[in-house]
Amino acid sequence: MTDLSPSVAPTPGTAVSGKIAFQGEPGAYSHEACRRARPGMEAMPCATFEDTVEACRSGAADLAMLPVENSTYGRVADIHHLLPESGLHIVDETFVRVHISLLGVRGARLEDITEAMSHTVLLGQCRNFLRRHNIRTITGPDTAGSALMVAQAGERQRAALASPLAGEIYGLDSLAEQIEDRQNNTTRFLIMAREPDYARRPNRDGHGKMLTSFVFRVRNIPAALYKAMGGFATNGVNMTKLESYMVDGNFTATQFYADIEGHPEDPAVARALDELRYFTSVLTILGVYPADPLRAEQRAGR
Length: 302
Hints:
By secondary structure, the chain is an alpha/beta fold. It has three domains: 19-98 and 185-190, Periplasmic binding protein-like II (D-Maltodextrin-Binding Protein, domain 2); 101-176, D-Maltodextrin-Binding Protein, domain 2; 210-290, 2-Layer Sandwich (Alpha-Beta Plaits), CATH 3.30.70. The protein has ten helices and 15 strands. Mean pLDDT is 89; it is low at 1-15.
């Protein structure tokens, strides 16, 4: 049974010291997410997602910032496998509008650019601009790492696709801004900690809507998934995400990741989770946390 005892959470707007780990070079969108969600913490760059998790797990960092999905590109590969195995807990989420800039060396012009480097995920988010300007793509290690490599190479024909923050850090000129195919291009990040926090707490705008994330495997009985999901429908619990993925490369072993609105202590959520447990062999709550304010904006169509 999950321990739902309250814990102490910082008041919105209060400075928080310590370190928050992220994957990538300084200037990455994950770095921007750290500055947005935890401006009082020192952002700690890590080479891989696994290194980011380990930094938090080992105590080298207090929190870890992990991207999980992008509104244009979809979910971030391997993250859903990493989350339940990490031993960490989701304590918050933050959304970052992904504004992509074409960054070149000092003095370069847009017409000079014949190739652009970035992470494969970002390359897929501005195909229209690249096609229109006949710019071929080069897959880089990550967004900010690509900006660093372009700055170090000093070649006028090569640009990086990265955040404006990366341009500032590495001394690159912005040759074109907000070139993403979709203006609502947004990445969702999860903030992970070594200890869970099930306290009801407001988001940075002071609102108190909570989310619960969990993974589960259904029992090997007919219509188990249908029956397991029925508890959420009959209890009026809104499920905002449900994704499946194979376990250990086995086609017959499927695990599901889900996000729902509400707190496990809410009567309707408690009933739905109790019904889910009846039809599952494994159920693990990954975290209970406040909803990012941008969720409400997206629902309102802004």
